[in-house]
Amino acid sequence: xxxxxxxxxxxxxxxxxxxxxxxxxxxxxxxxxxxxxxxxxxxxxxxxxxxxxxxxxxxxxxxxxxxxxxxxxxxxxxxxxxxxxxxxxxxxxxxxxxxxxxxxxxxxxxxxxxxxxxxxxxxxxxxxxxxxxxxxxxxxxxxxxxxxxxxxxxxxxxxxxxxxxxxxxxxxxxxxxxxxxxxxxxxxxxxxxxxxxxxxxxxxxxxxxxxxxxxxxxxxxxxxxxxxxxxxxxxxxxxxxxxxxxxxxxxxxxxxxxxxxxxxxxxxxxxxxxxxxxxxxxxxxxxxxxxxxxxxxxxxxxxxxxx
Length: 307
Ligand code: UDP
Ligand code: MN
What we know:
Blueprint: H1 3-26, E1 55-61, H2 67-78, E2 84-90, H3 97-108, E3 115-119, H4 141-153, E4 163-166, E5 172-173, H5 176-181, E6 187-189, E7 192-195, E8 198-201, E9 203-206, E10 209-213, E11 230-233, H6 234-238, H7 254-260, E12 269-271, H8 273-276, E13 281-282
Parallel strand pairs: 1-2, 1-4, 2-3, 6-12
Antiparallel strand pairs: 4-11, 5-13, 6-11, 7-8, 9-10
Helix pairs in contact: 2-3
The protein binds uridine-5'-diphosphate and manganese (II) ion.
Uridine-5'-diphosphate is lined by residues 59-62, 91, 122, 134, 139-140, 143, 168-170, 285.
């Protein structure tokens, strides 16, 4: 073989190998999924999860520094739950870039497709002003109502045997909670950790009935239950077409007012989580980050950074 031909051949081969290495390294990350392995169900992986009733999880959310972190954390819980449809409702006049981008990423890169992104802004009059105590107005009212409206508008395409759950963006959810609420006839209830001034706020169960509640705060409420402590069946929701949340009730009566439109008494509540003896959701709160260093910078630390 001519030496020139050999040299040209060798160079071509080296170039080709380099191109292949480049392509391999620059290709998009692929998140591998094994069939039925992504989902958690009562501690076991589940075959035929398509047959489970769908849980419609409603999350109000608003713009602040920790929002993306909160929603990222939450999404990683929800994407492990089979047949869960996540309805994110932003407290804003339009969909924001941060949330839209996150939703796109969840769909495109994590294969988490059952997400609906809505928005509904809280009227100015119900927004906290500087110096107001944090409990002055109820939060997430217009957002949860927007989600209920969406459910009613789309009933045709939804699972009538499904369940509705209100999951705030800062709480912490055990995957087992979703197995507990999956089969709800009317309203299912369970304990909530770290709420109402208690380690555990919970219904006290006697036999299969609820005897009382251990709440210390607002114990006169007809249903002394936090938003995170109950789920309602789609059937019950459909049979009460006017039921929704109101910001004009007594402070702290948001849940009681909503539940009062759906059921008559504690006898209609189904205790879950081992007769309400297990905490599977915590009313955690995230601190606002201290950004005192940021104020000293001429250019924000986040400029030219995807954060
Ligand atoms: N939220 C909202 N707009 C607001 C404040 C709160 O949409 O102006 C949402 C928030 O993202 C959360 C829910 O409403 O999902 C409850 O708010 P937060 O966790 O601050 O209330 P708390 O835990 O004090 O009841
Ligand atoms: Mn909260």
